[in-house]
Design goal:
It is built from 5 helices and no strands. The mean pLDDT is 91. By secondary structure, the protein is mostly helical. This is MazG nucleotide pyrophosphohydrolase domain.
Amino acid sequence: MIEIENMIDERQQKLRQIADHYQEKQLWKLAEECGELVQALSKYVLTGDKCPAIEEIADVKNVAPQVEYLLEIGDDVELMMEYKLDRTIKEMEKRQKKVLEKLNCGITGMRNWKNKDA
């Protein structure tokens, strides 16, 4: 566990060093990397090739924290991420409830339905 923590600390130091060097250029770099990620994901959908997606996701995950650091918005981004995750979970639960209502079963009915094949 300590090795992972050290690796994360080292990565953060490297990201800050790069951000401090390139400054606002990293905003444009993030936009560029996001565009390349879109292309890589399209390629994956068409061909099944994951390698470009892996590379571009790594690029986005490296540059996005630099932009957070430069704009001093890391805490705000974390709060927004949590909000969006919670919102998505609530939406999923709401949709599941609507499906169950259409089937005229409650949660008990759904449990029984899930366990039919068990």
